[in-house]
Amino acid sequence: MLCEYSLSAQREDFYNITPQVCEAVTKSGVTSGIAVIFCPHTTAGITINENADPDVVHDLLIGLNKAFPDRAEFRHGEGNSSAHLKASAMGSSATIIIENGKLLLGTWQGIYLWSSTRRGIGSFM
Amino acid sequence: MLCEYSLSAQREDFYNITPQVCEAVTKSGVTSGIAVIFCPHTTAGITINENADPDVVHDLLIGLNKAFPDRAEFRHGEGNSSAHLKASAMGSSATIIIENGKLLLGTWQGIYLWSSTRRGIGSFM
Amino acid sequence: MLCEYSLSAQREDFYNITPQVCEAVTKSGVTSGIAVIFCPHTTAGITINENADPDVVHDLLIGLNKAFPDRAEFRHGEGNSSAHLKASAMGSSATIIIENGKLLLGTWQGIYLWSSTRRGIGSFM
Fold first, then answer.
1. Please, what's the largest Cα pairwise distance for chain B?
2. Which residues contact A86 (CB under 8 A, 6 or more apart)?
3. What is the mean pLDDT of residues B5-31?
4. pLDDT at A9
């Protein structure tokens, strides 16, 4: 079953979409299988990371920008090649195991849509 | 259904394999499900990124080489540990949702085989 | 079919879990499909890389720590934001095609649990 979600991202951030994914799994009625969370943008991505301390995603933003900064050699006219690099490093999707109708996430795992600036839509099956 | 593709990569680059993946989805007759694109090499990978401006992949190549350069401390005798690092950062596969017999890619998304130098084979189910 | 594995990681390293995944595929009796290997931790991940020369994973550890070092600006109190960054760069899962009852891995590909320090559990379906 396909569910589509969108959220409005005002700034570069990691947006916790775990509740939406859990809701979609419940709605689907799947008891054993996989959930694929896919983001149809090229300057955004899906990642799984800590859901407890908001300082973790604060640090992820800094660390990613240090690893993949804008560079003088970049040619792309929109000037957001750093965001494209981070998108490929994060990946466009996450695949999570469903058992007994629930996502098998670890205690500290949350599902995040990382978005550079633009509107993000999380497609989900 | 499993389809296998190979392409000859003369140099490090991102090769757009979206047409081959679309063709395989059509051939499979799957109307609703997922496509898994898997690359069986350790110095190559699969990523989804912008399909419009070729400067984006030009910048990705630069940005990845800056983030994961060759280093004096590296021990691997083949001298391509930088390529192994980029392979793990990109990932060996992409998973894409199929609905109504079509890949649910965003408008600007293309599927790329990133290859360092060697021949790449894209396995696909 | 869901199989769960755990291993005790004494130090940051890449642990080859290919034998466990192959065993689980055989046990499942699946002849054609996919295997999803999922790690429920936020300072660990799953990646596919070279299984032949142990110097490759030695170099991966160095290269990842150089790309995602600890930084003075980090706020997370546990002091392991570098590990959280590497977890998002590696990814929490790998998806591999199964055909004729076997994982379609390339000759040089092994499946690795990268763990920073904590105990890792590889969930697998």
1. 51
2. A43, A45, A64, A65, A68, A114, A116
3. 92
4. 83
**Per DSSP, what are the bridge partners of residue B79?**
none
**What is the edge-to-edge ordering of all strands in the sheet holding B44-50?**
B13-16, B109-115, B44-50
Q: Which residues in chain C are contacts of A93 at CB distance < 8 A?
A: none
Radius of gyration of chain A (CA): 15
- CATH number, domain B18-117: 2.60.120.460
Q: Report the residue from C59, C67, C91 with minimal CB separation from B84.
A: C59
What are φ and ψ of residue A94, in 5° steps? -130, 145
Closest-approach residue (CA) in chain B for C112: B88
The maximal CA–CA distance of chain C, rounded, in angstroms, is 51
Interface ipTM: 0.94
pLDDT at C122 over 70: no
pLDDT of residue A51: 96
At C47-62, the pLDDT tens digits run: 999 999 999 999 999 9
Say what the pTM is. 0.95
Among partner residues C56, C90, C108, which is closest to B81 by beta-carbon distance?
C56
Q: Which residue has the tokens 């890389």?
A: C49
Q: In what order do the strands lie in the sheet with C44-50?
A: C13-16, C109-115, C44-50
In angstroms, the separation between the Cα of residue B40 and the nearest Cα of chain C is 4
